[in-house]
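Standup notes
- DV: blocked on the single-chain target, sequence here:
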Amino acid sequence: MTGVQTCALPISFLDARPYEDAARNRDMHRDAWARRLKIDIAKPWLIAVAMQRPGDKMRSHEILAQALGRIAERGWQLILVGDGPARAQVDAAFAPLASRVVRAGQLDEASLPGLLAACDLFVWPAISEAYGMAILEAQASGLPAVAGASPGVAAIVADGESGLLAPEGNVAAFADAVAALLDDADRRALFG
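- DV (later): unblocked, structure below
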């Protein structure tokens, strides 16, 4: 994985050990989270982890909803992790896709590694993102990422190596990148 090294010490402000441990037990975590969230274990799981607040975070949620709406014919499921003052607006943005979106809410630090490891693809448009800690956590869990190419994110996601970057704010390009990795499990595994 680019940007995250396997080490007992924190790298880039992240202790990767809990995420790497969870990744080694992916099947166990996937079974447990499928029961907990009542989602289909056989379909690809997308995950977004972010605060739900006005401004750039809300704009990222809107772009994600629009992009996933463009590829609704594919069999994905989205897990949204997080909460905040813009929750109602986030729900409204995803309303057309409500049957495909599961809210995990705000999770404690110990729960997140297992859920990330259980998923197939991290997705986040990253509008004006200074640095993507959630993306680093996903990468440490063995997940490839599709993200917006904001400067901070582009510094940690190696486009074509650990994930795909779409031009910041470009809904169509983001949808195309997600579709490309949904359609190619081998590439997802290579990026992860």
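- Follow-up: The CA atoms of residues 71 and 181 lie 12 Å apart.
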